[in-house]
Write a structure and sequence with these properties.
The complex is a heterotrimer of chains A (166), B (333) and C (501). With 166 residues, chain A is mostly helical. Chain A is 66% helix and 2% strand. Chain A has two domains: 78 residues; 66 residues, no CATH class. Chain A has five helices and two strands, in the order βααβααα. Chain A is flat and about 60 Å long. Chain C is mostly helical and 501 residues long. Chain C has 21 helices and two strands. The chains are: A mainly alpha (166), B alpha/beta (333), C mainly alpha (501). Chains in contact: A-B, A-C, B-C.
Chain lengths: 166, 333, 501
């Protein structure tokens, strides 16, 4: 399977269409209920986002129109990209998403080494000693830098796992 | 900065990794405590950092201040109270999120839902104009002008529906004057626009005043406390007016009282209270706070109800001033 | 008088403590600026408690040096990794990253540092010579003028967005919309918060920037073939020769520093707007053989000279009026007050020696930035030698910690991730990312000042014509927009003609 530029263009146009739709939906419902969708500049919080959303809509339409008018026959070949070649970045994003969603629950010290290990594995590192040592080492090193020097409290999770550095 | 002991840390790492939850049994405090501050970085945050630093000296752990602005301080309040009630999160309980927003119906808590540590600081406001103003020279004259020209005066209280706005609206209501409040994202810009003639009057805090006393005509100090009047070099205060606003004590002022979640264990709360009380007594801390134009407060946790209770009552009683101003402005349109 | 202040300040500055802390501040600033997430503001906030109790000039030296170093540090990661370490460096990657791709990473960083230092020194001269004048000008810059200036900034988007003007404007509008999320300061109502308290102050701009640029870039890196191999890149030490390289662009340095110092002096405008505007000006005025967007030295010079000159400019209203120009200078102002010094006109009279000392530490920070920066550059460039298989997880981790540290918020991490996905989509469809950043910065400036102007005005839109400065800016805007439209239409007609031919 191949993803082509035209598929992506449809996707991004849809994305902006959803953004514009959300603006109008929120103005009509939530903002109207709060009483901030009408009146003068003191009370009307809807006029400005509505204007920008309309401008965005106009630009999208203009972009499509320009694209139709200047449809120069394939000066840029749209060969697209094999879905299979996207497996590594996709897996990285999945691992990262899982990491971020687990972070506040199980805490930094438990969540971080497996994330680092998984990303390195996806990137092709296979030596188990290197994987484990680097994952633990990096996790502890950066925790030390931020917690000890900058006094930043990293997520402790339900276990309240923290390292008292000093 | 604290010394780093590799052996001790190595042991601690090993131990905490093995027993995990066991660390909670150790003596409080054993790690960094965070103070949630409800405003953007600025003078108020610097003041909180002074007290936090002193408390950190007492407790032996770091105490960073985290700026969490949004929705007149309520975002910080919700954030702080959503954290575990273990004493490792303290809320910088400014009057706006603690008392005013509940009074205005924008929050579902009251000040009594929290455990107080100690009163921190207060900050008096005044209504100021320009010294070269030709249309009036004092507050009563400005009110006469405002009465004759409804809806024409432009002023700023910083943000809309904040404490200075409520107090100024109450004063204006007592005189039957309708004026337009102009909200600003940064108080400094409101002061700048007052000086350049874009605004007719503005709320001025002690810090603004001290930076350039000759640039302002302080027409009314919004506090009945003699100390506040003195901060503005004896300018007229609400005591000198012929109308009774029904405001006393801390009610017309900005202030903060550091609080923790009500489920915080008593021994932990006690340690924080002791540390904060000691911090607030330190002469260098008081001096630094005063340098920023704030007043250090001496009330400890036993006086929370006695001090904050009346504020809540008085603000509740004048809650209609803001609504009154909005109504009158709409009528003029 | 200013000479007396400087002379008196010299004694306060010439102590081992003050000089040592300034040096340390520059280093710390460079590092914290280069890390994705944390920037000069967080650097100052984190270090403020450390300096309470120190002599004022030494304390301010440390904090101002963090500001100076941090304003430059973001360019290092922009050049090396295509990740702006701070929003300030979002425009630096237009040409900085292509330069690195062409094997000129050391040169690019050297130029970024030299231009920052030179721009910063220029800003310092402005600060010393023109403080009262600029402060007076800034004091009369009111909401109508800010509204007009914000529109000028939006026009700059159409200049910077290389290939497609429409795509750039689309991205800019998206940024403007993002900026409306949260509590509206006029109505006090909540916009697009979907009932979540996390959204009450909108999205944190740093979470958005890190997501858009860094996460999408890491996904891009994962598509590479040889991720285990150490890239074969020559890590040359950028000699002091890059200063000469930068000096060759002296007109650009002067113009960009002037723009930077000007925007800095206006409270609320700030470094992002000045770096984008300078870039737009440099590009619009460039010779045809300089390929902006493909690794032109002038592009790096323009953005970096501008955003460091902004620091000097920002100190003007902060010190002379007591009105902070941005959040970082608001913290500096707080620090000054804690140290027992009240900024404002009074300070120039009663604490002249402190004013002189602050001017000196600011100048010293920039001189130190030049030498220290160039000395430590190889250390940073070494990052390029790390195999991608190790670099990607480290960057992901740094992005997570750096973004989390802003407000100790896990929600910010979710925002970062979501914008990572949006960044991937935008990149795949040639929608430029940088205009989103300038849109987020300009959004509140435009909306709030426009609404403020309308509230202040007693006769509607006429307020923009009645005030001379706002009227002049309005005319300039009309001319710029007309020019942009004419140029775009002419370009279309030409390509239409060539397509038919």
């Amino acid at each position: 399977m191949v993803i082509r530029r035209k598929h992506l263009n449809v996707l991004v146009t849809l994305f902006f269409a959803v953004v514009i739709a959300v603006v109008f939906q929120q103005i009509a419902t939530d903002m109207a209920e709060q009483g901030i969708a009408s009146g003068g500049p003191y009370d009307n919080a809807a006029a400005y986002p509505r204007t920008i959303a309309l401008l965005l809509g106009f630009l999208i339409v203009l972009k499509i129109a320009v694209g139709l008018v200047f449809r120069t026959p394939s000066t840029e070949p749209d060969e697209g990209i094999e879905v299979a070649s996207l497996s590594k970045p996709f897996l990285m994003l999945v691992v990262f998403a899982v990491y971020l969603s687990l972070l506040s629950w199980i805490g930094y010290h438990i969540a971080t080494p497996p994330m680092l290990l998984a990303v390195m594995y996806i990137a092709g590192v296979r030596n188990p000693v290197a994987l484990i040592a680097l994952a633990l080492g990096m996790s502890l090193f950066f925790a030390f830098m931020f917690e000890f020097f900058l006094k930043i409290v990293l997520p402790g999770g339900v276990f309240r796992l923290v390292i008292p550095w000093s | 900065m604290m010394k780093f002991n590799p052996i001790k840390t190595g042991l601690a790492v090993a131990v905490s990794l093995m027993i995990g939850a066991g660390a909670a049994l150790a003596e409080f405090p054993e790690r960094t405590i965070e103070l949630i501050h409800p405003w953007s970085p600025g003078n108020a945050m610097s003041v909180s950092q002074i007290i936090a630093k002193a408390m950190s000296d007492e407790l032996g752990v770091a105490l960073p201040v985290i700026s969490t602005p949004g929705a007149a301080g309520t975002k910080g309040m919700i954030t702080a109270m959503g954290r575990p009630a273990d004493g490792y999160t303290i809320m910088d309980g400014y009057v706006a999120p603690l008392v005013l927003q509940p009074v205005l119906g924008n929050a579902d808590w009251t000040y009594a839902d929290y455990k107080p540590l100690h009163a921190a600081v207060s900050n008096a406001f005044a209504i100021g104009g320009r010294p070269d103003e030709t249309r009036w020279s004092n507050f009563e004259e400005m009110m006469a002008y405002g009465k004759a020209n409804p809806g024409k005066l432009r002023y700023s209280s910083g943000s809309r529906n904040n404490l200075p706005h409520m107090v100024i609206a109450k004063v204006l209501q007592s005189y039957g004057v309708v004026a337009q409040n102009i909200p600003y994202s940064a108080d400094g810009n409101a002061v700048k626009d007052l000086k350049s003639g874009v605004l007719d009057f503005s709320f001025i805090n002690v810090g603004n005043y001290k930076q350039d006393p000759s640039a302002f005509n302080i027409m009314l100090v919004l506090s009945e406390l003699p100390g506040a009047k003195a901060s503005y070099d004896g300018a007229p205060s609400i005591v000198d007016l012929n109308v009774d606003l029904g405001l006393s004590g801390l009610a017309p002022m900005g202030w903060t009282w550091w609080i923790v979640h009500r489920d915080t264990p008593d021994d932990v709360t006690e340690k924080l209270r002791t540390a904060m009380t000691a911090a607030m007594k330190r002469p260098d801390v008081r001096e630094a706070i005063e340098a920023v134009g704030f007043v250090p407060l001496d009330w400890d946790h036993t006086q929370y109800e006695e001090i904050v209770g009346p504020v809540s009552g008085q603000l509740g009683a004048m809650g209609n001033a803001l609504a009154w101003e909005e109504e009158e402005l709409k009528k003029l349109k | 008088m200013i000479v007396d202040s400087l002379a008196d300040g010299f004694a306060l500055f010439l102590t081992p403590l003050a000089i040592g802390l300034t040096l340390l501040g520059v280093l710390f600033g460079l590092l914290i600026g280069a890390l994705p997430g944390l920037g000069p503001l967080m650097g100052i906030i984190l270090m403020l408690p450390v300096v309470i109790g120190l002599p004022p000039v030494a304390a301010m030296g440390f904090l101002i040096a963090i500001f100076v170093g941090g304003s430059c540090g973001g360019s290092i990661s922009a050049i090396l990794l295509r990740i702006p370490g701070t929003p300030l460096a979002a425009a630096t990657l237009f040409d900085g990253f292509p330069m690195a791709q062409k094997g000129r990473a050391s040169d690019a960083i050297g130029i970024a540092i030299s231009a920052s230092a030179l721009g910063g020194l220029f800003g310092g001269i402005v600060l010393i010579m023109a403080s009262p004048l600029l402060a007076n000008f800034a004091a009369n810059f009111a909401p109508p003028e800010y509204s007009m200036l914000a529109i000028t900034g939006l026009i700059a988007i159409s200049v910077i967005s290389g290939g497609s003007v429409i795509n750039g404007l689309i991205a800019g509008c998206f940024g403007l919309l993002l900026a409306t999320i949260g509590t509206d300061e006029f109505s006090t109502g909540y916009r697009f918060t979907f009932g979540s308290h996390h959204m009450l102050n909108g999205f944190h701009i740093v979470a958005v920037v890190v997501g858009l640029f860094a996460i999408s870039e890491m996904a891009h890196q994962m598509m590479g073939k040889d991720m285990l191999k150490s890239p074969d890149i020559d890590v040359a030490r950028p000699g002091l020769g890059t200063i000469i390289l930068t000096m060759k662009h002296w007109i650009n340095v002067l113009r960009s520093s002037t723009i930077g110092a000007f925007f800095g002096a206006l409270p609320g405008a700030g470094g992002v707007i000045s770096s984008f505007t300078s870039y737009a000006a440099a590009k619009a005025l460039s010779k045809s053989d300089e390929k902006y967007g493909e690794g032109a030295e002038g592009g790096v010079v323009a953005t970096e000279a501008a955003n460091n000159a902004t620091v000097g400019g920002t100190l003007v209203p902060t010190l002379a009026l007591g009105i902070p120009g941005d959040a970082s200078s608001a913290m500096l102002l707080g620090a000054l007050l804690i140290l027992g010094i009240i900024p404002g006109p009074e300070m120039f009279v009663h604490n002249g020696e402190i004013v002189g000392g602050i001017f000196l530490v600011y100048l010293a920070s920039n001189v130190l930035l030049l030498f220290v920066g160039i000395m430590v550059t190889p250390m940073f460039v070494y990052v390029l030698k790390i195999p991608k298989s190790h670099l990607v997880p480290i960057v992901l981790l740094l992005c997570s910690i750096g973004t989390f540290a802003l407000q100790a918020s896990v929600f910010d991490l979710m925002v970062m991730f979501a914008f990572g996905l949006i960044g991937i989509l935008f990149r795949a469809t040639n929608i430029p990312l940088a205009p989103v950043v300038i849109g987020i910065i300009l959004g509140p400036l435009l909306e709030n000042n426009f609404r403020r102007s309308m509230l202040i005005s007693q006769d509607g839109l006429w307020i923009f014509a009645e005030r001379p400065v706002s009227a002049v800016l309005a005319v300039i805007n009309v001319v710029l927009i007309a020019g942009a439209v004419v140029l775009t239409l002419r370009g279309w007609r030409r390509s239409l003609a060539s397509a038919e031919a």
